[in-house]
Amino acid sequence: MDFRYLPLLQSACEIIAENYDPQKKIQDFWEKYGANNSRLHVLNLFLFYKGETVLQEQLTIEEMKQFSQDLMTLLMAYYVAHREKINLDDIKIPVEETREENGEEGSFSDIPYTILGLHYLEQKLNR
Length: 127
Prior knowledge:
The protein has five helices and no strands. The protein is mainly α.
């Protein structure tokens, strides 16, 4: 076993705990990162993976590691909620109204924001 992946696998072990609450895990993630920050973190992880040195935000290796672990926890919680048919209607996903600007007309981070339809999601969540 490659022990480098152990932190990511810990979230898989959590789901068998007696008091595991996927709704709480999901809500905790969204309260911590929100829609905009999580989108930006994923973009930065991708750019970092590709070897880019100029990221949309400066994250430390520890911050990227923590976000990766939290993201894995979120995915596992959504999986459990799906399997157990848990209603997630009460989950609140914070969406900030203003996005990052880099001083130019729009910003690079607006491109995936638009492509992924997050403007539509933001409008839907704010209703």
